[in-house]
Every structure is written in C-alpha cells, then in structure tokens.
Amino acid sequence: MASITLSAAELLLHRLQALDVAYIFINSGTDYPPVIEAWAKARATGQKVPELVICPHENAAIGMAHGYYLGTGKVQAVMVHTNVGLANAACGVINLANSNIPVLIFGGRTPISEHSHFGCRNTPIGYGQEMRDQAALIRESVKWDFELRLADQIGEHVDRAWAIASSLPKGPVYLSLPREPLCETFAVDEAALQAGPSQQPVRYAPVREDIARAAEAIACARHPVIFAQRGARTAEGFARLDSLVREWAIPLVEYWGTEVTLSADNPLLAGADPSVWLADADVILVVDSQAPWMIAEGDCRQDCTVIQMGPDPLFSRYPVRGYRADINLAGETDEVFSLLEEALRPLQAARQQHVAERAAYTQNRIQQQKNQRDALLHASQTGAITKPWLSYCLGHLANQHRGRIVSELTTLPQFAGLTQAESYYQEALAGGLGEALPIALGLQLARREELIIAAVGDGSYLFANPAVCHHIAEVMKLPVLVVVGNNGGWGAVAGGTKALYPDGYAAPRGNHSSHRLYHLAGFRRDRRLQPRGGPVGFPGRRSPRRAGRSGIPHTHPPTKRAG
C-alpha cells in the first residue's frame, strides 16, 4: 500500500470508523477546527467516517452514546470542548463508570502554544481554559486517560482506548486532544486507515474450581436466594437465569434493580425487598450488584455462603463496600451463568425431591407477596396517579409493543410486569440525574423501529436539559415517547429527609422549599419546547393509558408495531 500524508485529526476519524464507531456525539468549540475540516474533507472525497451528531449540551452527548451502546453493544465516541465541556460531561461520565458502559470520550485541549505553531492560540479564551491537569475532572471515573502529544501516535492511542474501554469490567476512557498536534500532518501507510484494532479487549471467566464450589454450595443449600441489580445483561443471560431459577427453585430479588433480570411471569421473581429472604438464606448468589441489600438494615447469617459474580465481583473501584465474598465468579454475567448451569446439571438428580419441596414453599411465599402488590395496585386505580399505577400502565405499553422503558425515578419494576429481556433500564446507582431522556434518544437512534419510552420525574426532566433533548429529537427524527411524572419536586430528597428525621421539623412539610419545584407545566405554553405532537396531560387515574395511546401514533406508527 502507498504512503499518504494526512493530519492527526484525519487519522482519528478513520480509526474510529475502523473500530465500528457509527456516531460521534459532539458539542464542539474552537479546539475542533482540524476535526471539522477532516470530516468535511472525508465527505467531499467520498471516504466513510462516523456521522457527527450535534449535541448542544454535553449531558445529552454522553447519554446518547450510552443509549446507543445499550441498543447495539457497540462503543461510540463523544467529543467535548476543553475543560468547560468536560466539566459539563462529568456527571454523565460518573454514570457511565457506575453502569460499566464503554464510551470513547475526547476532550479538546486549549492550544499549548502562543505563537509559531499552526493551531496556536488565537483568542483570549485560550488562556482562561487552560488547566494543568484537565483530565483530573473525570479521572476517578474513567479506566484510562492520556493526552495526545505526538501527532503520529493518534492511531495507537485510539486503538488502546477502545480496547481498554471494551475490556472487563467495561467503562469509559478519555483522551485530551490539543489543537496543535491535531493539525499536524505526517506520512502513514494507507492500509493503517481501516486496519483492525492493534489491541484486543481483555475477557476472562471464573476458574473451574470456583465454579465447582459455587455449584456445590447452591445444590446443597436449603434456602438459597439470588440478589440481582444490573440484570442478566443479554437476552441469552436472561434465558439462562430463567432456566436456572426454575430448575433449582431459587427466589430472585431485584433490590434497586436497574435492568430486567427475570420475566414478571416467572414464579420465582421475588419482588424488590431483600429483608424477606435475607434472614433465612444459607447461600446467596449476588449478581452484579453494588449493594444487594443495606447492611445497616440487616445482614446475612454468619454461616451463610455468599457468592459474588459479575465483571468485578468486589467492585474494586469503591473504597468502602463491606459485603461478604466467600466465592468470587468474575466474568461476563451471561457467560458465568452458562458455566454455572453446566456445573449444576450433574448435581440435580440427587436433589430433585428437596428442590420440589422448596419450589412449593417458595412459590407460595412469592404468591403472597404478589397478592399484596396486586392489592396495592388495585387501590392505586382511584384518586391521584401513583407510581405503582403509572408503572403498570407503562409496562403494559412496553409489553404490548415490545418496547423499552428508560426510567429515572419514575417506574417501579415490580409493578411494571415486564416480560422481555432488555426491556428496561433505570438510572445509574450513582445519582447523576438527567440521563434517562438522552439515553432514550440514543437507544431510539440505535433501534429506529422500536417504541422507546423515557419515563422521568419532573426534577430529572429538568436535569436532562429538555430544550436540548427535544431539539435533538426533532433534528434527528427520534420519536421517543416522553412521560413526565410530575410530583412537584425531588421526591428522593423528601424521602431521604423523612427517613433520617421522621419526627423532625421538616417532616410535616411534605413540600419543603429545599426540594419543591414550581410551575413545571409552564413549558407547555412555549412552542419551542414542545415535542412533535405536543405535550399531553390528563388529570385522572386513566391518564397514563390515555396519554400513552395519544403518544403512540407520533412515536410508533401502526405499521411498525409488534405484538
């Protein structure tokens, strides 16, 4: 192949294309002229490079990359403007790290030189945006960070960043891009533009002895229980876990679950309260859960065997996490389930009678819990809309249309009744609010034919910068169904205050000024903020169903429906 001359910015785009990056979610600035020029040149000369998605706020850019990964499993790129753009992105990066979502984050760096170099500073802002350590803004939340220093190293840096982001446990990475090296040109072998990655991601699985110990513990247990938070991660894992709990009659608790782990019609799905099962458990399988229960509210028995499994069973990024870990099974969740299922198979015959007895007892106990939930749901059908009723209606929509719900402090999975794998994603357990709506946009971009529902609280909706999100939805033609649960404030703040000070001064004042929001509905009068089809509001208990039916024609045309 011939040698060609191109800039670092050009090679950056070509390497991203080679790594199967379809989109660059970008909020650019004066640091990106070389990238913009490189992109324009590629388009003008018929070369394929990633699409640019203009995101007028960095939170939207991070969220859309997050959502696109959920829909495709492919790592995408985000470009932000120097330190100020990176600061805006930091909240989303914290969420990415918490949820093990791999994203390539590039931050423009204010020009290093004042003169004599192509790309040197040409505005006063170049001085105000300089930091000695720009990456420090997000270093604790990324797996790897560096700054481009030599232009001809851009290809190897991008390949390395992609490999590290895609390695277990997955997560975001960051590379600073000073303007001068981006502008610099150099000779490169033309074959390097679209070559495969020079580094491959790291994958691993539990050692055979640990799988055998875990299988033996589960097979011999009298009262085993599974606690899961982040779901089975794939449709294959979803099916394997369904089979495992049915064959071994093991109840599964989704405490603060962020994804669907079992179908709602599985008789072993044991709700969201760990306390019901924790005290009796002699073997606990913790599935990718940063906090499977709250230790302050009750811990497991001293003689209980605790099996921690997931990409990072010890959650090594967290300074404090004191949950027992007698056996660790490290690897991709669905692959670990496959190994565990295989190891349990020869042990099943000897325990068949015991498992049958446990199944009858466990399913009866779970049915009692379901009866209580059904009674609460029935009571919720009168008066003001409640979270259980809203959750039920959204779940009905998602099941009917094979849709996906992206929720933020609005949906209660135990009432949604979801039956499909990968049909639900809840906000990251890091508290960086404002992610659900942009994640839904990214998911819709990845899954154009599917119904995507963003169910957000009023406070979370404001955190998402809705003007930006609706603008992107309009420009990109992303018909997300947005449901805003308006409770007039930040409910988590109110609940947390009451939990710590149940008899305090703030307790009688349910809408204390510190977490109260006012006049959210005023946006309806501003056509600039209205989604296509307009906002829909109904005050009665049938509101969620009516609003959903009103929104479906705008987001999910009849010809695209499933089921």
Automatic annotation (TrEMBL):
GO terms for biological process: isoleucine biosynthetic process; L-valine biosynthetic process. Residues 414-511 form the Thiamine pyrophosphate enzyme TPP-binding domain. The keyword Disulfide bond does not apply. Residues 211-314 form the Thiamine pyrophosphate enzyme central domain. The keyword NADP does not apply. Residues 528-563 are annotated as: Disordered. GO terms for molecular function: acetolactate synthase activity; flavin adenine dinucleotide binding; magnesium ion binding; thiamine pyrophosphate binding. GO terms for cellular component: acetolactate synthase complex. Keywords: Thiamine pyrophosphate, Transferase. Pfam families: TPP_enzyme_C, TPP_enzyme_M, TPP_enzyme_N. Residues 8-125 form the Thiamine pyrophosphate enzyme N-terminal TPP-binding domain. Its EC number is 2.2.1.6. Belongs to the TPP enzyme family. This is Acetolactate synthase catalytic subunit. The gene is ilvI_1.
